[in-house]
Amino acid sequence: MNDTPRIEVTVAAPVDTVWRALRDKDTIRHWHGWDYDGLDDEIDLIYFTEVDEDPAARTLSVQAGDVIRLEPDGDGTRVTLTRAPRGVNPDWDAYYGEITEGWITFLHQLRFAVERGPGAARRTVFLTGANPSGRSLAQDLGLPLSGPVATDLLGEHVTGEHWYRSANQLGIAVDAWGGGLLVLSSHGPVDGKPNGVAMALLSTYGLDDARFAELRDRWTAWWDEHVDSGE
C-alpha cells in the first residue's frame, strides 16, 4: 500500500505570485515557521540547499525528495506537496510524521501570506509541549471547529474565520493581532514526537511592543499552567 502523504492547498493568486513567495528569501521569512535565531538558516536548508528547482514546470524538490508543485486552478494556484516515501532518507524517517505535520502548517501559512499579505513585519508567539493523550487544544480554549469565530480567547474577545482544518490542526484567521493567524496543533505520538504534540503559533502584524508583550505573556501564562512541557 502506498501511504505517501500528499498535501494540497489552493491559493487565490496566480502561479507566478505563489512561485515568487517560494523563491524569495525575504518573502519566505514572512510566512515560514516562526521567529527564532535559526530561522534564516532553516529557510536556507529547506528551500535552497540541495534542491532540484524547475522554474518552467513550477516544481521544487527539497531535502529528502519532498516535491512541491504549483499548477493553475481557475484564477488561483493549486499547491501540492508530495512527501518522499519512507526509506529514501533513513536519517529523516525518525521524524517522518512530525515533518508531515510541519508541511501542513507551512503551506497554509504560505496561503495566508499570499492572500492576506499584511504589509507589516511578522512577529510570532510559539508555544509547544507534550500531548501523550492527543487532547484537543481547540476544545481546551473553547474554540468552535467550524463557522465564524466570535469568542473570548484567554481574556480577549476575538473575531475571525476558520482558515483551515486538518486531522490534527486548526488554523483561524484572527481580525485582531494586525490581521493575524492562529495555528493550533494537537496530536498524540508520531514519528519524532513520541510524547505527542501540543503547539500554538500566533502570527501577528504591526503590534507595538507593549501589545505584543501582553499577548505573548498572557498566552505563555496559560500554556505553562495547562500544557505539559514534555521535559
From TrEMBL:
Species of provenance: Actinophytocola gossypii
Domain of life: Bacteria
Name of the molecule in the record: SRPBCC domain-containing protein
Database matches in CDD domains: SRPBCC_CalC_Aha1-like
InterPro entries named in the record: START-like_dom_sf
Taxonomy of the source species: Bacteria, Bacillati, Actinomycetota, Actinomycetes, Pseudonocardiales
SUPFAM superfamilies tied to this protein: Bet v1-like
